[in-house]
Amino acid sequence: MPVIERLAAREILDSRGRPTVEAACALKGGAQATASVPSGASTGAAEAMELRDGDPRRYGGLGCRTAAGNVTGPIQEAVRGREFATQAEFDAAIAALDGTQNKSRLGANAILAASLAFARAAAMTAGQPLWRYFADLAGGQPAALPRLTINLFSGGKHAGQQVAIQDVLIVPAAARTIDEALAVAYDVYYAAAKLILERYGMRLLRADEGGMAPPCRTPEEMMETALDAIRAAGYEPGVEVALALDVAASHFRCPGGYRLGGETLTSGQMIDRIRRWIDAYPLVSVEDGLAEDDWESWPDLCAAGGSRVLVVGDDLLCTNPARIGRAMRERSCNALLLKVNQIGTLTEALAAYRLARAAGWDVTISVRSGETEDHWAADLAVGWSGDQFKNGSITQSERLAKYNRLLAIEREVNLAVTLWPNRHGLASRVR
Questions:
Q1: Residue 221 is a catalytic residue
Q2: For residues 20 and 34, is the Cβ–Cβ distance under 8 A?
Q3: Are 178 and 404 in contact (CB under 8 A)?
Q4: Which one of the listed residues 47, 50, 240, 339 is annotated catalytic?
Q5: Cα 160 to Cα 148: distance, rounded to the nearest angstrom
Q6: pLDDT, tens digit, for every residue of 143-191?
Q7: Domains along the chain with CATH numbers
Q8: Catalytic residue flag (residue 83)
Q9: Annotated catalytic residue: which of 209, 292, 348, 398?
């Protein structure tokens, strides 16, 4: 049984140059491991709370020394010398120490860093790769690897808000391996880079998650440009490469509806716009098509698109079992975007995952816009049998660390990529 010998943390920087937390856990018997946590730019109001120092003289108030100190201080004091038979026991102990609903006392960044560091050390003690440890937590072994959804173009809070919607992603729908999917993404990405240089005179500049941010005037223009890039790379849209959208509608919510491309749309008009996008483009997934507070309209969105695309809840759900339960009852969506740092511990994220699975939903395991080069999310996507893995583009080291980890796992397990999609009869959209 793992016994905590030491737990400590320090402030490090994420991929945007902002502070985050890295924790180190040492167990009796010699296992030592570290883990670092990400931070989001496009965050839901119901997310667990990151603890920031608030000192305007340092990192604009975003410092994480207090959160790191909470790991080295009160969290370590509460768990050092104690034996924890399971991940759930450890996570329950540190969540109880915090004692708040949103992790605001110790900080979700401190709590999750400790949770992940313990998981990695426990996996080492058991002689397991991390993905297998995660699989054991979920009570099963993966039969396939997750399908990749890869950022191509970005707007919204991930880029310069030149377009209101946040991301247009490509889905290598015909690829049967991670290796093949990444090769396809390479072809499309660099075809897109050449195209936007020719069309817009734009250099290869990158948004938070590595996507390009061409000065498109409308979401439709961004999607048309993506289709042109797919064709220029030699692939057939909707057959070999599909599209997915992260609308992130909470961020252009306004009094009276949604401010999109100079128009103010009601919720019903926003749903109609999304329906037209589904009709016009080879979309297989639409994330956060409405705002997180527009609960009454989400069932209409799911009814309009849910038999044809994945209607994915991110800000709406925040990996929170209570919000997922409401969405299940109201039939608000049919897929969960799972971000562990939205809820604060692995055990709580697993409860959200199981609830989504019980509803028959697809689950996309997702990273955040502010990432580190820690690759535990790739292990999680495999261990928890994610249907999709949303990790950003293919050009930045914090993204490549996860993709390279998936390549290593693929060689180890010799599994194919899951069929797209595999729960809602959407295969007809990818021929």
A1: no
A2: no
A3: no
A4: 339
A5: 25
A6: 999 999 999 998 866 556 678 898 999 999 999 999 999 999 999 999 9
A7: 4-127 (3.30.390.10), 138-429 (3.20.20.120)
A8: no
A9: 209
